[in-house]
Design a protein that fits this description.
single chain; 284 residues; alpha/beta; eight-stranded parallel β-sheet
């Protein structure tokens, strides 16, 4: 069993188009659908995926849920609703009625603002529904995440793409290291070991695991085997590294940690972080 917790599906040929990616991003601006993903992922042993919504359009949440209704390979969905919006509660009630809707994604800037103002009602509602919060953020956002994790300990938080640290083969940014160590003391915070190739900024990215070890070791020492999660960030990873390369790098690293740690990273921790309900489908 292997669950990829970070993919994006979209179709620029729809009559309404898509808000992301831009037509200027030629490598990404094309129909990206489950059949395209499965052609790459199934040969690598993937059995299911959690889709993360990049579009801010409310109805695109329904578009993915409709897609998932016909595609059992989609085992969970992280939606996109604007926290603090007047229609937030109504939209959350609507989409959360679907058991595949497992949480929301927010930016680090949004979390900093909500923590600063103390307007956490929407996030408390998320926690009350047993939904999680994915966070697209950078190192400077980690103190706000730490405060949020303490203020709502029942809310599961997932840091996307190693919390945005630049990877250059050397010891990572010291502020990021300090922030990671701090947030990892909160048991409700998970980290997605995804976006490694993208965080190098190189096209193509280095394919030698040693290049990524300084960053991976910080994450392992902070979160251990219980709270690190696999995500490919497909198709965004493609200009930097192939899907097979992305999975090989983390597979090699976690394989060195032992079979149990590898299993937890590749699917068991995802089941906990996202409270997945479509477990049988993920085993196909």
């Amino acid at each position: 069993m292997l669950i990829d917790t970070h993919t994006h599906f979209y179709d620029p040929t729809r009559p309404q188009g898509v808000p992301w990616p831009s037509p200027k991003e030629k490598a990404l601006y094309r129909p990206v659908l489950p059949e395209h993903y499965k052609a790459l992922a199934i040969p690598e042993g993937v059995t299911g995926t959690v889709v993360v919504e990049a579009s801010p359009w409310v109805e695109d949440n329904q578009w993915i849920l409709d897609l998932a209704a016909k595609e059992p390979f989609i085992v969970g969905y992280v939606g996109n609703l604007r926290l603090g919006a007047e229609d937030f509660r109504a939209n959350l009630e609507r989409f959360a009625a679907n058991p595949l809707f497992r949480g929301l994604r927010a930016s680090g800037a949004a979390i900093r603002e909500l923590v600063h103002t103390g307007q956490l009602d929407d996030l408390e509602t998320l926690a009350a529904k047993d939904l999680e919060l994915d966070l697209l953020l950078g190192p400077a956002d980690l103190p706000a995440v730490y405060e949020l994790a303490q203020r709502i300990p029942s809310l599961r938080l997932v840091l996307d793409h190693v919390a945005g640290v630049r990877i250059d083969g050397r010891a990572p940014d010291s502020a990021w290291v300090e922030g990671i160590r701090q947030v990892a003391t909160c048991p409700n915070v998970f980290c997605k070991v995804s976006g490694l190739a993208e965080q190098t900024g190189q096209r193509p990215a280095p394919t030698n695991l040693d290049y990524y070890l300084p960053t991976l070791e910080v994450l392992w020492n902070a979160f251990g085997e219980e709270r690190l999660i696999y995500g490919s960030n497909w198709p965004v990873c493609e200009p930097f590294a192939s899907y097979a390369t992305v999975q090989r790098l983390v597979g090699e690293y976690f394989g060195r940690k032992g079979a149990e740690a590898s299993e937890k990273y590749f699917w068991k921790n995802a089941q906990v972080a996202y409270a997945l309900h479509r477990g049988d489908a993920a085993r196909r």
